[in-house]
Structures are given as structure tokens and as C-alpha cells.
Amino acid sequence: MISPHRPDRDDADPIVNSVAILTFGLGSALFPAIPNLVTPAAAVFVLALGAATVRRAGWSGLQPEDPVLTALLVAFLAWATASILWSISPERSISRAINLLPIIFLVLVMLSRGAGDLLRASAPAIMWSILAGAGVSMVFMVVDILSGMDLSMAIAGGLYGGAERITADYNRGLSFVLGFCVVAIIWFKLNGYTFVAAALFGLALLSVALSESHAAKLATILAIIGIILASWKGRVGPFVLTTGFVIVALAQPFLWAYGAERLSVDIPFLPSGMAAEARIEIWDYVAVAVLERPWLGWGLDTTRLLPTFAERQPAFQVMDGISTHAHNNALELWSNLGIVGLMVGVAILGRTAWLVVATVCHTLQSMATGVMAWLFTISFVAYGLWQTTWLAAIVLTIAVFNAASLHEYSRGARQADKIAYGENLT
């Protein structure tokens, strides 16, 4: 169980606070226009966090808050690396395994005990930065759509050398920023800033409603349902959500295999037309690949080389070339690393759900359920599992939740903590 230690505001590291303001403030403003910024932002933030942890607590500060979760993450990396032995492209699998090393390292640093204390002490800086950055990006998006002035296009174009209209790019960046917002909204509510929480919630909902992303709309609906469920039955929410994810993940190959011939493109969470057909055709050949090699898979990061595309391509109407990734994390994980890799992934999710139930208060369990619902939904319809932008966004989302997980500054939490942990909080 995570320690009940409540860092005081004075425990915050000034460097971590400064980097947090840049990462979550400037980042939340720019990620929608420049999604690729999320990777260097995550790296800089976590490295600054790790350096501050070692400086304050020595190397012992990097001890894991949960050794079981740490062991599962290391086991996942080991299995992914072992897949090189049977991969259809060993050189590609080796390259991806090398790329995964720093991601796993960043996660392990962020989940260490000392880093957790610094994150929680920096919670105010992180949450107010998210409010400022997300507010700016969402306001620009709303103004763009309602006025047709393309103000943010001009800004993004100047920064990014002629970016596409931000309302298109926003469909990707919105996935990152709204994950932060779910946590920030509840944190503000817990700390008595009800008006701020309501304003951010309303702006987020308006942005999602105006967005072209059907996946973002569905993810938001399910996140709200998850929060309501967990608010009613706090300990049930994370377990129900994780169980549902596992069931849906196991059903994926049987749902989509040979789908090009038998499935309509009129699916609620996908846009109509070619985008939906393309998704179905991608999931079709990846699902067939899972059925052909269910146990060990085809090797780490081999989705763009799966031979089943050539087998299935004559039945396709849209896809004339193989996709770079599966747009479905469960299918990609299973097709690449087999049922063993999928089960290790499921174990990581299960352990995370247990930690949420065992270590945080009832209200924060609802926050975690909402964040998990959001991430799970997006993972089934967008992004490649091994995309560094997606993995970095997950890393930063975990950091935001960890910062809020033991909310020292909540006006109602102090009394609850005294009841739970005794009068002398250390």
C-alpha cells in the first residue's frame, strides 16, 4: 500500500514545480496542435523528477512504491524482448525493444516512493497549469469552429511550419489533454474550487462536442459513466472497468476477423465512410493474424509486416497498403506478443486497479475509474500501442493522477485521513 505520508506544500521541489508548469501548462496548450511534443515533454519532466528525487533522498528514493507492479512491468519488457527469437522481423523487434527501455525507465522512476512524494507536493502547480494550458487550447478550438477564423491554425502554423487546421489535429491532442482534465476537475472539486471545476468541465464537454473525433465523444461518455459508477460504488468501479476491458480485449480477434465482408461501417464510435471502413479492414487482417499465431504472436512491433494483409487485401475496399499500426492496442499486443504478452498486460491493469482500490480515498477512486475508462476507450480505436506519443501521454496521465492521489490540500480530506490513519500523519 502507498504510504499515507502527506507532503506539505513546502516539500515541493522548485525545479520540479518549474518543469511541471512548462510540461502541463505549455504542453496542454500546444499538444493539440503539436502532438509530437508530448514525448520530449514526458522525458524532460520525469527526468527532472528523478533527479530531484535522488538529490533529496538519495538513490533509495527510487525504491518502488509497489514492487509487484514494478516486477510486472519488468516482466513485460522481458517478454517483449524475448519475442525477438520468433519475430518475423528480428531487427525491427530489437529496435522497438530498445525504444521501450526508456519508456519503462520513466514509468519506474515516476512510480518510485520519493518521486511520488514530490509529485504530490507539486499537485497545485500541476493542476493549475493544466487549467491554464487546457483552457487556452480549448478556447482556441471553440473559437476556430464557431467563428471559422482559424486563429489557432495561424498560431500552430507559425510553430509547426504550416500545421493542418487544428480541429483535425485536435482529435489526437484532445486525447492527451482530456486525460489530464479528468484528474484536474476532480482535484479542484476536492479542494473547494467548485466553480473552477465546473468551468473546466463545461469547457471540456463543449470541446468534445465540437470535435470531429467520435472516439473522443465515446471516451468522454464512458468516463462520465465510470465516474458515476465509482462514486456510487467506489471499490467496484476500477475492478468492473478492468474486467470489462479484459473481456472486450479477448473478444477482439473473434469480433473483427474477416470483418470486411460481414460488418457494416455504421458503427457508433466510428465516423461514417472511408475512415470507418479503413478501421474495420485494419482490424480484420490483424485479427486474422492473431488467430493464426495466438500463443506467441508475430514479434514485437511487427504489425506493419503482418503477412495476413496480403491474404485479406483482395476483400478490402479502402486499404491499398498495410497500416503502420493496428489502431487497437489489444489487437496489436496480442498479434505481436501472443496470449502471454496479453496476459502480462492484463496483470498490470489488474494490479493497477487493486492499488487504486487499496490506497486512495473513495472520491479519487472515481477519478481513477474515469481516467481508466477514457484511456481504455481510446486504446481500442486509435493509436498504435508502441507509438511513443501514446505511451508518453499515458506516462504523463499517470503522473497527474499520482500527484492527486493523496490530496493533502483537500479541505475535507484532512479529517478523513485522521480517521483513517490516526491523528499523527507522518
Q: What does this protein look like?
A:
- By secondary structure, this protein is mainly alpha-helical.
- It folds into two domains: 9-63 and 112-212, no CATH class; 67-111 and 214-386, no CATH class.
- The chain contains 18 helices and no strands.
- The two termini are 15 Å apart.
- 49% of the residues are buried.
Tags for this entry?
mainly alpha; 426 residues
Oligomer: single chain
Biggest sheet features:
none
Question: Structural class of the secondary elements?
Answer: mainly alpha
- What is the total tally of β strands? 0
Q: What value does the Rg take, in angstroms?
A: 21 Å
- Percentage of residues in strands: under 5%
Put simply, the count of helices is 18
Shape summary:
globular
**Overall number of structural domains:** 2
